[in-house]
Amino acid sequence: MSLEPIMEPPIRFKDSAEKYGFNKEDAIIFKIGEVSPLDKLL
């Protein structure tokens, strides 16, 4: 656990994706314990 707000890491991840030339909508954030087959992601 950390002291940062719970939604800060996903927001920072999407912002970083955009900074490096990716669309924010293409940055996939999984919920804790969530899994998905690779063929559904691509």
Describe the structure.
It contains 2 helices and no strands. The protein is flat. With 42 residues, the protein is mostly helical. It has one domain (8-41). Helix content is 38%, strand content 0%.
Secondary-structure blueprint of this entry?
Blueprint: H1 8-19, H2 38-41
Figure out the total of helices: 2
The biggest beta sheet is recorded as: none
How far apart the termini lie comes to 31 Å
Oligomer description: single chain
Strand segment tally = 0
Structural class: mainly alpha
- Strand and helix order: HH
- Taking pLDDT < 50 over at least 5 consecutive residues as the criterion, the unreliable ranges are none
Round the mean pLDDT to the nearest integer and report it.
92
Short synopsis of the structure:
This protein is mainly alpha-helical and 42 residues long.
Task: Describe this protein with a few key phrases.
38% helix, 42 residues, single chain, flat
